Amino acid sequence: MLKHTYEGQDCNLARSLEVIGERWTLLIIRSALLGTSRFDGFLTHLDIARNVLSSRLARLVDQEIMERVPYQDKPVRYEYRLTPVGRDLTRAVIALMQWGDRNLPQEMGPPRRADHIGCDGVVHVELHCGSCGRAVHDEEVDVRRIR
Question: Which of 58, 118, 127, 129 has the fewest CB atoms found within 10 Å of its own CB?
Answer without folding.
Answer: 118
